[in-house]
Structures are given as structure tokens and as C-alpha cells.
Amino acid sequence: MLELRGIIDAIWSFIVGLLAGLGIPQWAIELVGYALIAVVMFGVVAVIVLFLVWWERKVSAKMQDRLGPMRVGWHGIIQTIADAIKLLQKEDITPKAIDFPIHFWAPVVTFVAAFMVYVTVPFGKGLIVSDLSVGVLYIIAITTFTVIGLLMAGWGSNNKYSLLGGFRSAAQVVSYEVPLSLALLGVIMISQTLSLGTIVTQQDNLLKWYVWRQPLGFLIFWIAATAECNRTPFDLPEADSELVAGFVTEYSGMKFAMFFLAEFVNMFTASVVAVTLFFGGWMSPFGPDFGPSWMWFLGKTMFFVFVLMWFRWTYPRLRVDQLMGFAWKVLLPLAFLNILLTGLGIYLFDGLK
Amino acid sequence: MTEISLTNLTFYILSFCIIAGGIFTVSSRNLFHSAVFLVFTLFSVAGMFVMLNAYLLAAIQVLIYVGAVAMLMIFGVMLTTRLADVRLRHVNEQSWPALAICGFFLAFLVYGLWDTPFTVSGVPMPADTAHALGTLLMTKYVLPFEVVSLLLLAALVGAVVIAKKD
Amino acid sequence: MDQVPIGLNHYLMLSGVLFTVGIFGVLTRRNAIAVLMSTELMFNAANIALVAFSRFVTPAALTGQIVAMFTIIVAAAEATVALAIVLLIYRSFKGINVDRINFMKW
Amino acid sequence: MLQNAWIIPALPLAATVLIIFGTHRNRAVSSGISIAAIVSGFIYAVAILFNVLHDHGPHEFYFKWLDFGSWHLQIGLLIDPLTAVMLLVVTIVSSCVQIYSLGYMHGDPRFSRYFAYISLFSFSMLGLVLSNNFAMIFIFWELVGLTSYLLIGFWFEKKSASDAGKKAFITTRAGDLGFIVGILITLYACGTLNFGEVFTKIETGVFAGGLLTAAGIFLFCGAVGKSAQFPLHVWLPDAMEGPTPVSALIHAATMVAAGVYLVARILTIYIASESAGMVVAVIGITTSFMAASIGLVQNDIKRVLAYSTVSQLGYMIMALGLGAYTAGTFHLMTHAFFKALLFLAAGSVIHAVHTNDMQEMGGLGKKMKITALTMFIASFSIAGIFPLSGFWSKDEIVASTSGHPIFMVLTLMVAFMTAFYMFRLCFLTFTGGPRDQHKFDHAHESPKTMTVPLMVLAFLAIFAGWVGIPWLSHGFSSFVYHGEPHHAAFHFDIAGISLFVGLSGIGLAYLMYYKGTISPDKVAARFRPLYTLLYNKYYFDEIYDAIFVQPLYAICDFWFWFDQHIIDGLVNGAATLTLWWSIAKNWFDVYIIDGAVNGAGYTIRGTGSILRFAQTGRLQNYALIIFAGVILIWFLR
Question: Which terminus, N or C, of chain D has the lesser number of Cβ atoms within 10 Å?
């Protein structure tokens, strides 16, 4: 039906043909191709994120029994675009005492790293830029760049609140990355692959979703991912009631917008990973070819984004020591337990796959 | 052979990034800048690994070096340095002799490596090295693997013991 | 640009340059953390060489990649302990300049 | 059914563990658990009684516990009529006392702990009763002693209570030393500790003669300590420092009966060895007479009862010593009920007036009708008035002395004194006018949890003895017996005499303390030396202090002096010698040896002070030199 792969292939061959017809050398064509893909990916994710920002505001409004943005467009649907334009127009205030290069590059690193994940995300049947053989590891690795960005922001602002925010963020993300990676290991052990595309195709109906075999793993992953995104109840790096606004205190205008968008991209990423590894990705629950795959993907992902928003308006924020204690004393042993159980399960029911 | 292959281009760009990043890391006055350049260099090295078909290693490089080691470095910098630290000298008094000796070493190295014909195997690299690496780690190299895991545990405990306040 | 296909020698050269840069840092930087960073550069230089050998000399055996992997892990362990020591030094000496820590003499 | 009798002691043990480790913060749950455990035990004990009524024969269930080469220790159950009766007595009294304690201990800060201890005691006592060998009985024997110690010293903030606990513990330990010696003799002679096997050895004549007599006397030492017989009786009156329900349970009805139980259990030994049996009987009657005479003049209500207990235990021991197995155990059972009742009633009185001194009570019968009524029932029972329980059991004991005129006379005198002091107690407490108006005004009847157990026990104090009515075809004597069941005929003469003696004791008490016809003070004045002797309990505590405690102090002082002067002198002398020798050697060391060593050292230091400038202590200097050296070697290769 509505599979996009065909359309994209058609456009791609048209462009390549056009460029080759113009006598442009092969390497330049490849370069342009990559650039085009990057731009398209960026566009897709950016649109999704703009939608998410609006949605978050609507969801929080619903949960607090108010209306949220209503004025710009139908139920305020283009409010975010208006906001983005406003932010772009605003003056970019750079405080005097900052470490300028660090301060300048921090949002860029965060922003770029957030988007780099999407190289290996299967959006739908065939809709994947590059199905890396180390896809899962790639995602885990790239997401750590976000922290570098936050640390740079914290340091570069030369502000003690920002610095504290940076510290907290680094400690938190590094700590939660350990149970997160270990939780994903369960799925990897069962699926015998690191490639996201293969993992998705293995879960070709509702019963084969890995969440049924990895309930504990999913739980650990989801908690850790919430922490990785710096979302409530783990939003200590930017806890506005404690640290003003954490590492974004000294940012304004476009740079602030980049941090803001990166946060939403990360949120989307967490949901994407959850969906891909545990809930069958773009596979429909009823078999491989039931409805457009990208619709399934988006639907599932949006549900998990909604869960994240739901968390935010449900749970209070943790204390720092509770946060670290929880990661090292609860999640980590549980993750080890999960690996042991998975190994045992594979050993006992070999050929479970 | 007048066409520029994309592989060659990438190699030179990455080499430039690595070496420039390394030099900045070593020479930057601001320690935090050093750390950021270190991250940059390490990331470029990961890119180099991709060029060498070592995808798993590239991912590990990013995960461990960027995600853990560099983070630790930045942490260390943040804990031990203040932004406004004005340092009179960031290098010690032996920098000139050291530069001379290093230059000599580099010249010697380049001289030695420039035209050495290594016996290069023509066998192409297997596409999916991750699987093979995993198998090797669990079979042929299982002892070093276990030793390394023990080492990590020891380092973990050791670091906690050393750094904790009495 | 001369169109020589990129081979083993290129990678080894790159490795050598990076190693030299690293060792220069180790020999000259006064800050202990900077010294540690320089050692990381040296580790990376070695890794590039190892992986390059693995790629070009024994592509099927993967030995170089295995060793590089171990190097990375050991480097991580080393960084952990070394930074712990640096923190300890910072607490005891109120600074982490390497040339101030010269009590092991006479 | 029978082989699962271990459940009875296991229930209170489980209750103890649960209370200590789980529910000790919740008073209601703790006491509930404890009471539920003992009441379930009671129900089970009733079931066992019916089983045993059906089939008397000793039922034994055991398994090996420890192997010591040729012989082994057992853990096992022995169930015969005696066991069944004891189980019933212990569980009934324990249940009543625990329910009573709900009221009596109400508001105590260590309420839960109290119930844990009581349950632990029930476990030990039941285990003791069920044991099938000497080793196991000894273990439970000591556990019983421990719980007794814990409960006497339950209010350990009071120095007198903690002292009494220690006194009880140490005094009974003296008896237990004899007990364990007796056990070892038995083990040496028989090579086994199982009761049945030991008795077989005695019957076949393997275990006989002086060894058997010695074993009997030493084993009896344990009973002397635990049952507070002369001369180790001194701890029991002091043990009244514990909570009154504890006194009723442990120091009147059950634990002190353990000694009697032990003698009954191993009665074969005393029947086989006449002389050992005679020792037992003499000790018993001596204790009985002595304690009864002390009881005449005491003013502390609980002490009167304590001496009464000692006296009645002496009765039982005497009866057993004379071979009257049925009489002794029968009295043990009835005594348990009415003595527990007496103590609980006394506890009720104390609860009401907050004093132990009878001289401060009086006239309480009007205010505490149930307590007074039950107390009078118990007193009539202990005085042996027809047709209450005490009449039947005491009658059998008197009958058992029929071959020994001296014993009979003393027994009747004790009966007279018992009747007298019991009614002295009752009249002083419940009749006449109040002697302390303030306390009288505050007195009130105790709550239901306390009076209901009183009524249950009063019922038993009246009717429990009826199972032993001699002309009953299947009475107590055809159930609990040693050897052949003996159907003692009812001796009208003996019954008449003892009834007359009891009534005359009551009459005297009535005249002295109710009517006031004879003034007690005048009697006391007339027999001043005797009164003083009795009032001071024959000076036993003082004599023990003079004989044992003071000489011990003297010996300790001597050895302390010896230590200080002789041993320390030797040690110090050796030290002084060593010191002088060391000084001499020191001189040699400093000037000769060190001279040589320092000479070498100075040389090396001189060299080092020149060479040390090469050592900058800077890591990077060293690294640079090493690196340069490596390149140099490579280059020159």
C-alpha cells in the first residue's frame, strides 16, 4: 500500500541520473547524495520534533485541566513554528565571562549528536539509511555525545549553576548508561544480532515481540532511558527549582532552541529504541504486511513518547543521592539478573528464536 | 588515476582531523579545550576504524573512549581546575629538548616507514566482523577476556578505594 | 593530490605521527590530566596501527582487532585508576602539576 | 497420633521464636500467639490422655542424634500415663496462668517479652516431661532453669529481683552438679542413657549395689535443687520476686514439680536401692516439716505460699522415697491445681492492694468475692478437707507412711501446720476489719481475664482429686502406677485422723485470727526463741553465708595476697635482672656494633650526597631521558 520506499527509490534514481547527466564526477555525486539524505532525515525528524513540542504542551495542559496553546492554527498546531521563528529572531546574548568556543559549540554538539542516531533507525519497511551491523551499539555510543555537549555547556557558561547541572548530567547519564546497555544485551542475546533491521524483522507478529521475553529488560531500559533523556523524574541537570535552569541558564535565542529541540529528539530516540527492540518496530502486530509500516512505527513511537510525557506530569523529581543509588544499587543488579536469566533461558530453551 | 576517490579523500580529511586534534590536545593552554579536542580526536579515530572495516571497534571506541574515558577526563578537569585559572606555563622547562627528541623520533619513524614493503594479504576483509569477534572472544581469547574483566573489576574497586575521602 | 591508493604505510605513518604528538605531550605538559590525555593519544596511535595491520596483513584472523579491543578496555581501566590518583594528589598537594610532585628524590 | 506428641512442645517454641523475631512490637498479637500455642497444646494433651487411657504401655519414639562409637545419644519421646498426666497438668496450668497474665501484666513495658519467656518455659517443661533419656531430660532441665532465672529476674531493675534470679540459678546449679554426676555414673554403669534400658539393667541386676545407691543419691541432688528440698530450698522463697503468675506457674505448679517428676520417673532406682530411697524420704519429710514450721510465722503472703509449696513438695518426695508412686504423683497433680490457684488468688489480692504484707490487708473478702471464695476453696483443698481434691491425695500420702511411725507423726504434724498457716493467711487477708484503710479503699475485684482462670482452677481444685477416689474401679491408681496397680483400700482410721488434724488446724487459726480468743502476739511472746528461729527461717541464709560465702572470700583474699607478693615478686625480680643485663648489652651495642655500622653508613651517605643531584624527582625528566635512551639504542644498533 502506502510504502514509501518505492517513491524514495524513484526520486533517488532521478537525481543520480540527472547529476550523472551533467557530467559530475562519481565521488561528488556520492557526496551530494549523502548530503541530501542527511537533509531529508533532518527534515523528517525536525518536523516530528516540532509536532512533539506542541503535543507535549497539549498533553500537559490536558493533565492539568487547561487548554494549552489554542490560538495559532487549529488548536494551536503551528504554535511551535511560531515559537521557533520567535526564538530565531531573538538576540543571541553571550555573557562576557564565558569560555566562548566551548559555549558556542556545546549546543551544536548536542544537536548534531541527537540527530546522528537516525542513521540506523528503521522508520519503515526499507526506510533505513544504513542498516549498520553494529546498530544497537552505534545508538548507545552516539547518545553519549549528548553528555559531552551538556558538559561543555555547563563548563562554558562559567556559571556555578550551569556547572552543577553539567556535573549532574554527566554523572547521571554515565551511571544510567550502564544498566541501559546491559538491559539491551538481553535482546541482543536472544536475537543474535546487533542490527536494528534484523531485530525488527525477527519480531514479525505480536507474539514475537521481545518485550514478552524481556519484560525485566524492558523495564530497566525504559527507566534508564528516561534518565538518559533527562526527563522527569530524572531531570536533575536542569532542575529549574534548584539550579535555575541548569546548563541552559546562560543560553538564549537559537542556541537555547537547539538544546530544547535536542531534548525532544532524545525523547523520540528513546521511544524509537524501545519500539524497535521490544515492540516490533515498524512490524504490524498482525503480520509483516498489514498496513503501512511507517504508520505502525510512528504510532508505537508516539505512544511511548506519550508515556514519557505522562511520567513527567506524574512523578516528582528524585534527589541526587537517590538517583545514583537507584542506578547502581537497584537497576544494575537487576540488569545483571536479567542477563543471567536470559542466558539461562537460552541455555534451557535453545532454539527459542 | 586523476580522479579523486572518496576513500582517499576521507582518509586525508580524517588524518588531518586526528593529527590536528592531537596537536591541539597537547598544546592547548585551556585544559577543558584540550579535553574537547581529545574527544574530537578520539571520534576521528573511530572514523578511521570504520575505514578499516572495524565497525564493532569503532562503536566500542566511541562508547568507551568518548562515553567513558573522555567523560572521566572532563570530570577530572572540572574537579581540579577553575575556569579562571591563569597559568604561567602550561608546559615544563624541558619542552625544547623534548621537541627536539620527538622531532628526531618522528623523522626516524617516517624514514623507516615510508617505503617499507609489508607483505600485504590480498584476502578481503569479512563484512560482518562483529560476529567473528564475538566468537573469537568466547573461544580462542576467552582467557584474556576473563583476565580483562577481572582487571576492570580491580580497577573499579581500586579507583573507589583510592579516591574516596577518608 | 597524488593518487596512491591508501595502504598500510599510510595508516602506520598516521599512527607514528599521533604517537609522537602523544609522547610530546607526556614529556612536556605540567598538568597531570593533560599527561593522561596524551597517553590516551598514544594508546589510540597504537590501536590504529594494530587495526591497520589486522586489515591489511591478516584480514581473516582479526587478531589485531582483538588486541585493540583489549587495549581500549585496559586504557579505560587505566584512566579510571589514574584519575582517582589524580584526585587524591589534588587533595593532598592542592594542585595537580606533575613537576611539583617531586618528593621521591634525594 | 502419639509419635507426633513433639508438636506440644514445638508450639510454644514456635510462639517464642515468632514473638522474639516478629511480633514483639505488637502486644495483642504476641500474647495471642502464646496463648493460642499453649491452648492448642492442651487440646492435643487431652487427646493423648485418651489414647494413653486406652493403651497404657510406655510408647517410645526416638531417633539417633549423635554417635559416639559404640553408644549413641537419642532424641526421643516417652509417653506413658505419668507423661500424659504431666502434659495435661502443665498445659492446663500454663493456659490458666497465661490468660491470667493478660490481666496481671497489663501495662507492663515488657509485655511481649514476658509471653516469649513463658512460652519458652512451656516448651522446656513439656520437653522435659516427654524426654526418653537422661541426656535429653538434662538439656530441658537446664532450659527450665534458664527460663526460671529469666522470669524471676523479669523486673531486673529491682535489685532484689535480679539477686533472687541469680540466687535461684546458682543454687539449683549446685543440685544440677550432682544430677550430672549421677547421669555419668549411670552412663558408666549401664552404657546407655535411655530410661527403659537403664531400668532393664537394674532389673537384671547388672546395675546394682553401691554404684546404684550413689547414682540414686546423685540423681536426687538434681531434684533437691529443682524442687527446693532441704538444704537447697533457700532459693524458692526469694524467687517470689518474680511476677506472681510466674510464681504460680513455675515456682508452685510445674517447674518445681520437675524434681518430683524426675524422682517418679526413675523410681525404679529407689525401689531397687532401699538406702537411696530412705535418703529421699528423710530429705522429703525434713523439708516438709521445716518449711511448714517457717510458714507459720511469715507475714508476706507469697512467702507463706512459697514455704507451703516447699512443704508440699517435701510431702511428694517423701511419698516417692517410701515407694508410693501413685500417692506422690497424685498429690503432684492435685497440688499443681490448688497451689496455682492459691498463687493466682494471692496475685489477684496483690494486684488489688499493691502490697505483699498480710498485716496491711484484712476484710478484703467483702470487696473481692470471687478471689476470696476461690482462695477458701483452695485452702480447704490443701488442708485436706473432705471431699476436696487435697483430701484424697493427702490421704494417700498419709496412708503411704503407715509402716513408718515417725514419718506418720511428722506427716500429720505437717498437715496440722499446713491447715493452720493456710487459714491464718485466709483470715488475715479476707476477714476482720481493714488494717490499712487507704489500701482497703483502693482494693477492687480483678478483671475477667484474671477471675476466669481462678474459677477454672477452683473447679479443678474441687473435682480433680475425685479421679483418685479409692473405691472407683478405674481411678487414678489403676492408671498411674509402678509395677502392678495397687488398689489401696480406703483407710477410715487414717482418713479420720488426718481430717481431724486438718480441722483442728483450721480451728486454731479460727480462734487466733478470726475470733481473737487466743492472741497471736501472746503466743509469740511465750515461745519467743522458737518464734525468732522460725521467723528467721532457721537462719539458713546466714548459715550459708558463714559456711560457704565468707570462707570463699577468705580463700580469695589469701590467693590475691599470694599473687601480689609471691608471684609478682618472682616476675618483678626476673624483670630487674633482665634490665641490668640489657643495660650492659646496650653499651656494647652502642659503642662497638654501631661504631662499625655507622662507619659504613657515613661513607655511603657521603657518596650519596654528591650523586643525589641526578635525582630530580620529576617524572617527566626521567621519561625524557628514558625515551632519548631508547632512540639512542635504536640508532646505534
Answer: C
Residues of C in contact with B156 (CB under 8 A): 80
Q: Is residue A29 part of a domain?
A: no
Hey, what's the cell of C102? 617531586
Residue D388: DSSP 8-state: S
Peptide bond preceding C59: is omega within 30 degrees of 0, i.e. cis? no
User: Does the residue B40 lie in any domain?
Assistant: yes
Q: How far is the C-alpha of D502 from the C-alpha of D382, rounded, in Å?
A: 9
Question: Does residue A352 surpass a pLDDT of 50?
Answer: no
* Residue whose cell numbers read 500415663: D81
Among chain C residues, the shortest Cα distance to D625 is held by: C27
CA-atom Rg of chain A in angstroms: 21
Which other chains touch chain A, taking contact as 3+ CB pairs less than 8 Å apart?
Answer: B
Residue A70 within a domain: no
Task: Choose the mutation target among D605, D618, D622, D630 for the interface with C, i.e. most C CBs under 10 Å.
Answer: D618
DSSP at A262: H
Give pLDDT, residue A236: 67
Cβ-defined contact of B63 to A140 (cutoff 8 Å): yes
CATH code reported for the domain at C8-93: 1.10.287.3510
Q: Distance, in angstroms, between D563 CA and closest chain C CA?
A: 54
Element (H, E) at D63: strand D59-68
Residues 6+ apart with CB under 8 A from A219: none
- CATH assignment at residue B132: 1.20.120.1200
Q: What's the pLDDT tens digit per position in D287-307? A: 888 888 888 888 888 888 888
Whether B24 is in a domain gets the answer yes
Q: Hey, how many other C-beta atoms are within 10 angstroms of the C-beta on D88?
A: 18
Rounded to whole angstroms, how far apart are CA atoms D212 and D202? 8
Domains in chain A, number: 1
Q: What is the arithmetic mean of pLDDT over D34-60?
A: 86
> In angstroms, what separates the C-alpha of C106 from chain B's closest C-alpha?
21
Give chains near C: 3+ CB pairs under 8 A.
Answer: B, D
How many folded domains does chain B comprise?
1
Which residues does residue A124 pair with via DSSP β-bridges, in sequence order?
Answer: A127
The residue length of chain C stands at: 106
Interchain CB distance below 8 Å, B67 and A99? no
- To which H or E segment does residue D73 belong? strand D71-79
pLDDT of residue B20: 92
Q: Which of C23, C35, C104 sits opposite D617 (nearest CB)?
A: C104
Distance CA D248, CA D227 (A): 14
Highest mean pLDDT among A76-80, C4-8, D549-553 belongs to: D549-553
Residue of chain C nearest B162, judged by CA positions: C84
Question: Is B108 within the bounds of a domain?
Answer: no
Is residue A233 reached through a cis peptide bond, with omega within 30 degrees of 0 on the bond before it? yes
Global pTM value: 0.54
B49 inside domain: yes
**CB nearest to B98's CB, from D624, D634, D635:** D624
Q: Is residue A270 part of a domain?
A: yes
Q: Grid coordinates 519500539 are at which residue? A: A275
Q: Would you place residue C45 in the very low, low, confident or very high pLDDT band (cuts 50, 70, 90)?
A: very high
Q: Kindly tell me the burial class for residue B86, based on how many C-beta atoms sit within 10 Å of its own C-beta (0-12, 13-18, 19 or more).
A: exposed
pLDDT at B132 over 60: yes
**Hey, what's the cell of A95?**
555573557
Q: Higher confidence at residue D42 or residue D253?
A: D42
- Identify whether A62 is part of a domain: no
Mean pLDDT of the D67-71 span: 73
Residue in chain B nearest C59 by alpha carbon: B125
Q: What pLDDT band is residue A351 in, cutting at 50, 70 and 90?
A: low
- Check if C21 contacts D (Cβ < 8 Å): no
Is there contact between C and A if contact means ≥3 C-beta pairs under 8 Å? no
- ipTM topping 0.85: no
Q: What are phi and psi of D357, to 5 degrees?
A: -85, 120
